[in-house]
Amino acid sequence: MEITSTRYVAALAPQLLGLLVTSIIIYALARLPSYYQKIQLWRKYCSSHIKFSREAGQGKYLWLEDPWSKSRNYWLCKHVAIKHVFSRSAIQETDHRAGFDWFHFAGWEIPTTDNRYKKTVRTADSTVHRELAKSKLSSLLDSVRRVGFSEIDRYKTAVGKEGKHVSLHTLMYRLGYNVNCIGIFGPDLDHVKTRVILQNFTEHQHMMFHCFNWPLPLWLTSRVVPGARKTVKARVELFNQLLEWYNAGGVATASSEMQAVVKVFEDAGTSPDIGSKFMNMMMIAFLANTPETLGWLFTHLVQSPKLLEKVRAECDAVGDVEPTAPFLKLTPHLYSALFETCRLYVFTGTPATVVKPTRLPGMGDHLFLPGDILHSMGQSAAFDVDVYGEDAKFWKGHRFVGEGESLLKYDLTFGIGRSPCPGRNFAIAELCLIATRMVQTFDFADPMITERLRFDDPDFIVRKPMPEKTVDIIDLDGKVYRVIHPGNGSDQGPPGMTAANTPACDFACKLTPRE
Ligand code: HEM
């Protein structure tokens, strides 16, 4: 009897195999057009974020779907859909916590789901939010002022009375980094060493973060994919620096905000390596976006002479301004130029997970299903003509002045709704403060594009001139001008999770102290 059934199955095996193969072929053929379309969109995106984002901003594409990911990952392109997903009204439809927990675990090995540490990590998260609340910022901003102004004095001495060409984008990056690193972590964490490591991390991070979506284990991708390997290497180096700093008692000279976060881990009796992983994640949040934004702001401001004149008059009028001053009112053109820079150079994609079948405004009839992961493609939302009008593709520093001020409510730079950036008030105040001081202190002339400084190069060197790219901007007189541009370093490859765009070359100019 047994022999008969075995023979029967053996006789049927070729038919079963044939059926299986045919089903696979039919399945694959049925999906081929949509797969082909996804790859085409993806290829287009990867060849240039800017070009793709412009098309998407004009409404051609509703989303970018990742053809390789294990769950359905959508990068939403329309402003109205992104705003909805992150707003409080979508609370029944999308969940943010899952994405954050996964992101923190996969990116920094923070044990977000391990019951032994879960509560401590949550308390540390809310401590960061509490410590960075607007009402508590004055001591942190005082350190920013002290460190920032002494850095600017150092630049003044270095360029001398006659002035000197400097790699301005890099110098502004370093200014922003030093201010935050020394201001938040205190003087005992090596700000040059950590900056070099963090720049190596951010340079490659988009590849590691993208691997999170692949149907492959992280231990494999982080060893095999070159960008992911480099990011992990930098993460380990930064972790070692932080642990060394902690063990040497560096926290004693850190800001009270940082001490409060460390105390959460100490009070819970957690081993220092868990706290260091958390601080490692915070290094990116605290230190990566602000400096790059400052670099891009000056690249454009220096080349908008009429706007710069206006900004200079505003900055001179405020004189020795308090760090907690209302910059929107006191220096409206500078404030606007800063947000215009963020609009075009900061792209964010912290994911939300769909928990209930839902349709999204601006996304037609598509029904998003539980488990779908939604990212905001901030860059194409920034080019959305429905929001910003036909001139959305230009950097227009005075966009948010006067009547334009109402457009600030569409800003997505710092996230919105349920999980905005807890450091946003601090970031805006410090950026306005430092930029004001720079404009009060220096004249800027003779812009040029040069090879980018290496991360470990000294501050005041300029590398060899590079072929110039150009970009059209709108100056205060409303006219379009063609100006030079260093190119976008992060304008290719898959989308990052959260970062400011990096330049491909350096923007250099002559910096001369004003009389
Ligand atoms: C121009 C500068 C900055 C930009 C554009 C920026 C933007 C963002 C965005 C978009 C998020 C994610 C929000 C979400 O989708 O849930 C975020 C998270 C965060 N930001 Fe900022 N931020 C900046 C500066 C800062 C600064 C200066 C600090 C602290 C001093 C800070 C602290 C944080 C923290 C702690 C988080 C949560 C990070 C996490 O849990 O993964 N940010 N930021």
TrEMBL record:
Keywords: Heme, Iron, Membrane, Metal-binding, Transmembrane, Transmembrane helix. The chain crosses the membrane at residues 12-30. InterPro entries: CYP450_sterol_14alpha_dmase, Cyt_P450, Cyt_P450_E_grp-I, Cyt_P450_sf. It holds the Pfam family p450. Belongs to the cytochrome P450 family. This is Cytochrome P450. It comes from Phyllosticta capitalensis.
